[in-house]
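All the exercises in this workshop are built on plain-text protein records. Sequence and backbone structure share a record, each on its own labelled line. The question running through the whole workshop is how a given chain folds. The record below serves as our worked example for the rest of this section.
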Amino acid sequence: MARTAIAGIANEARMGCQSLSEQVSPGMPGAVFTPYRQGDAVTPSRRCGDSVEQARAIGHTLLSLTYRGANVPDIIPAQRVTWMELFYDVIVAASMLLIYGSLAKHLTWQEFLWLSAIALVVFAMWLSTTLVFNRLPGDTTGRRLFVIAQMFALVVSVASMENSDRVDGDVGIIALGVAMLILAAMWEFIRRSAAEQSQTDRLPVFAFLIGSVFLLSTALLPDSWNAAVFCVGALIGFAPMLIMQIPRLQAEGRIDLHHLVERLGGLILIMIGETFLEMAVLFTKGGNPRILGVLIVLIVLTIVWWQYFTYVTDRPLVRAGGRLEVVLAGHALLILGLGSSAVALTEVGLALTEELPLPVLAGILGGSFALVYAGFATIVASAAKPAGQLPILILAALAFGSVGVLFSSVWELDEQTMSVIVVAISLAALLLTAAASHRSARSAT
């Protein structure tokens, strides 16, 4: 009886969506009105499938009130993104900011490249863990303990390795090996729990297992080998996942793109918020706020947020081979840019006792936002029809890079003037991409 009632409500919602799709002209992308299925093209806005799921949820609520505590059949899907995943995102985003926090101590290209390598490894760890939840949804006690143990190992690894431009000792590498070993165990659990076991699922298990053994071997090797062990171990563990496993899963339709888009967006959102939070923390430790600087930082972060969630990710993800890897590469660039920009944006909003030299500040601001907009351009380029937004984002990335080089080596500007230029370029890019998006929408109708 309960199943019939809920199915009836959901069917009414589906019929309404179908009648709505019949009103769409042939030139419009009718796919936005089709119910969502795993592996289909997805977009964060206007899904008919969402309406169907909402209808089911309403039906479930009405039946719960009717039965007054009686057991209602468990036919409603569980929450897709779990609280454990969000907690994991917060820890990973904080680790990213911790990595680039030491950039102000050394200020060399060698330091930047070393920190970026650590950040990419952390992102690869996050992505591999996200695919665990993607392949096998759920939030069990055992999985929580696995993820928490991995988080502890990851934080120890980051805190040990970001302290200088080289690996001092082997604690960080051993901790990374432990985190990778836990990841191998999680993927083995997926392989054993999958309804249809595939040889594809063996690849990440073996890769993470061999990579972890290689990293753990640093305890027996001289410290002079640490950097090489870190790089080779990370490649052994994560390269097969990124180069082979993800394309195979995508081709087989075994990646829930809806879930992956939400997780990527959640990580970016948390990183944007924690950039502003870092400035607030330093204020409590003695930094003097610059009112104009704080407002400028808030405006810049708002523009980046608006650009990403409105005009960059609001597009379908297709199942064609290679597209998903391009999207992930764009997010990697975006994360590197947001992480490195946090150092400079903090000095824009606060007057600190130990400030960065102005040329260095200009270089970090320009370079980091060049990475951010290069990431935007890469994500947009993954679409089947990037329209007119792609050249705008490429020009914005080039403009940020040119400004960073110019004001770090030729002219010297104060941090707030430089940040105003950053706001101007970001706002111009936002307005131009908005205009291009509206033109594309009108031409589609």
